[in-house]
Amino acid sequence: MRRQVTITPLTKDAFAPFGQVLTTEGSDHFPINGGMTERYHDLADVQLAGENPRAMISIFRGQPYALPLELKMVERHPFGSQAFMPLHQRPFLVTVAPDENGIPGTPQAFITQPGVGINIGKNVWHGVLTALEAEGDFLVVDRGGGGINLEEFFFDEPYLISRKQGALNSG
Amino acid sequence: MRRQVTITPLTKDAFAPFGQVLTTEGSDHFPINGGMTERYHDLADVQLAGENPRAMISIFRGQPYALPLELKMVERHPFGSQAFMPLHQRPFLVTVAPDENGIPGTPQAFITQPGVGINIGKNVWHGVLTALEAEGDFLVVDRGGGGINLEEFFFDEPYLISRKQGALNSG
């Protein structure tokens, strides 16, 4: 029997153990620039650790994955957080897993609302960028600097990530 | 006679004295995640200086300005860069000015291509976020920490920023 994970909506509470949700919804804000701009302020805990750390801004162009998908691997970055903000209005899939004595426990899978991003905390197990439906660009804020900032873990048996419990074919 | 500035297209070369253009166009990239994602890598020089600096991620929701516009004030941030990435596909206006012995010289105004952002270097004089056409959200990466990270300069006489030289009404 294949191990299954059911996708649930991304919420701030559900994602809190893994990082932050980047959204204006329910976030602190205040007016600047004579009231012409509203600043939804300081949404992420940007973590920059290790040797000679610096913040990097990149654009990731992701090809879309089909659902259900097999999650064979997760990775983590011991020295820094990694933020993904979609530059389009399509949802994407976020997969994370708690750490259990140095290896990932059972993954959780979240689907985002359009226009919503995430910041994954340092050393949090997560799946790779998973665009859905169409190719999509994402602004990424992560950490540059010295040292090996990547650890990968391959599951003995992949997890099947799907929208509905037991739905092997409908996504 | 009012001082006028004509808007020109934003290019990497023209903007180089002031910061970086955030775009996939002509930027270094390489495949990651088994070829499913292309990483347009390290597009910005994120500067974090001063007392207890940290990187912040915020969302700015900007009301649109009409063109031509009067530029009355520019500002700069002595301790950090500030990146603006549009979360929509409309162009926006970028106004910067060289420093001349501690005060801003003649401003330059650039219009972006859709999907293109900017990173303004620390201590570079610039106008406030200037959305055009419609309200727009921007992901902003700037610097938190101690000290006064804002300096404003009000021009004795505003500049008129317009699309065409001498066009006072057509924008």
The SSE order of chain A reads EHEEEEEEEEEEEEEEEE
CATH class of chain A: Mainly Beta
Instruction: State the shape of chain A.
Output: globular
Chain oligomer state: homodimer
Largest sheet of chain A: 8 strands, mixed
Number of helices of chain A: 1
Broad structural category of chain A: mainly beta
Uncertain runs of chain A: none
Percent helix of chain A, as a range, is under 10%
Q: How large is the share of residues in beta strands of chain A?
A: over 45%
Mean pLDDT of chain A: 95
- Report the radius of gyration of chain A as a whole number of Å: 17 Å
CATH topology of chain A: Jelly Rolls
Under the CATH scheme, the architecture of chain A is: Sandwich
Describe it for me?
2 copies of one chain form a homodimer. The radius of gyration of chain A is 17 Å and the shape is globular. In chain A, the strands form 4 sheets. In chain A, strands 1, 6, 7, 9, 12, 14, 15 and 17 form an 8-stranded mixed sheet that branches. In chain A, strands 2-13-8-16-5 form a 5-stranded antiparallel sheet, with no helix packed on it. A two-stranded antiparallel ribbon of chain A has the order 3-4. With 171 residues, the first copy, chain A, is mainly β. Chain A starts with a strand and ends in a 9-residue tail after the last strand. In chain A, strand 10 (99-100) and strand 11 form a beta hairpin. The first copy, chain A, has one helix at 12-15; strands at 3-9, 19-22, 29-32, 37-40, 54-62, 64-65, 69-76, 82-86, 92-97, 99-100, 103-104, 108-111, 117-120, 125-126, 130-132, 136-144, 151-162. Chain A has one domain (28-161): Jelly Rolls (Sandwich). Chain A is built from 1 helix and 17 strands. The interface between A and B is large, with 44 and 44 residues. Strand 4 of chain A pairs antiparallel with strand 6 of chain B.
